[in-house]
Amino acid sequence: DADVTQTPRNRITKTGKRIMLECSQTKGHDRMYWYRQDPGLGLRLIYYSFDVKDINKGEISDGYSVSRQAQAKFSLSLESAIPNQTALYFCATSGRDRTPQHFGDGTRLSIL
Amino acid sequence: GESVGLHLPTLSVQEGDNSIINCAYSNSASDYFIWYKQESGKGPQFIIDIRSNMDKRQGQRVTVLLNKTVKHLSLQIAATQPGDSAVYFCAENMHSGNTGKLIFGQGTTLQVKP
Known about the structure:
heterodimer, B: 6-stranded mixed β-sheet
């Protein structure tokens, strides 16, 4: 979905480094999400935010932090990257409850 | 714990045939369901959704069926085309407050043979 932009698209880094993944959206949605995708495990929720002052942990938040800088921007940080955080990361947005989430094209992150 | 699962990891169909992708969910409180399509190198793309007060909904070449009695969801694709080749995910939204959180299944890979 071109209305949800993730940067970078690919990143290779080393264990122990701090990494920030960024997400911006032009859909005007209040709700934003960060997911991780591993082969065979589907999508798992890391953090979500329902507005600028709201941050909530998902099912796998350990080792991650987020910042909601504005309605349109939601960033994900890995404070000290470890190899098992190698995965595809997706940002998503949605409007009110029980409406579809719209996804960006993901960031492929490799930690050596 | 609650989970959303798909019956088959891979489905292979002939071009022009109809495809049916199944999904079982275990949370009886779920009241909203979505099907996504994910192509290689891209994020999940919304296909169709359905609320629990319905048992069928149709889109362009796609139909979603919901059977709440047996907690089963299916996606039917009519006249399957090569461009339909992708991984398909179902997702459920639990009716628990106003969270808007989705639980995703592991996905079914649809392969379309020419």
